[in-house]
């Protein structure tokens, strides 16, 4: 029997998502977000529940451009780490990305070994086409600024690695 299941997040999940990510925000692994941000983006989120209905994992896919999406807020409760929850979430987000027609996924992470095991590589100084850059730089989204490696997000992203995966 499956110990957990992945599903689309609902607005009623937002308080539980915030509770799940709170320890990671306190450790400065994830950036904190206001409740309104979670509600505005709830359609981007997938959650994982155990058989008792407890929320044990969360992750989001945010579309950044015609071919590019970002994996955001990927988190698993401490007692479920190493049990495939993160893998199941990432697999679902990748399937969602393919369904949307995306060919690349970006993430900004401290969890380099996890994402490397799942086919992500360090972006290094990789950039985008200048015309795409000119469009993306107009975005007010912090994730886009992180992808573009803009100076204004540097204080919040120190120590993180910009990683990308090409979807096959």
Task: Please characterize this protein's 3D structure.
The chain has 168 residues and is an alpha+beta fold. The chain has helices spanning 14-26, 35-40, 85-100, 112-117, 130-136, 142-148, 154-157; strands at 4-8, 45-50, 55-65, 68-76, 104-109, 121-122, 161-166. Helix 3 links the parallel strand 4 (68-76) and strand 5. The chain is globular, with a radius of gyration of 15 Å.
Structural topology:
Layout: E1 4-8, H1 14-26, H2 35-40, E2 45-50, E3 55-65, E4 68-76, H3 85-100, E5 104-109, H4 112-117, E6 121-122, H5 130-136, H6 142-148, H7 154-157, E7 161-166
Parallel strand pairs: 4-5
Antiparallel strand pairs: 1-2, 2-3, 3-4, 5-7, 6-7
Whole-number mean pLDDT: 87
Helix content: 25-40%
Distance between the termini: 30 Å
Order of helices and strands: EHHEEEHEHEHHHE
Low-confidence stretches: none
Which strand-content bin applies to the residues? Answer: 25-35%
Could you give the order of strands across the largest sheet? 1-2-3-4-5-7-6
The radius of gyration over CA amounts to 15 Å
- Count of helical segments? 7
- Estimate the global geometry from the Cα principal axes: globular
**Largest sheet: number of strands, sense, barrel closure:** 7 strands, mixed
Number of strands: 7
Multimer state: single chain
- Class by alpha and beta content: alpha+beta
EC number: 2.3.1.1
Keywords: Acyltransferase, Transferase
Protein name: Amino-acid N-acetyltransferase
GO molecular function: L-glutamate N-acetyltransferase activity
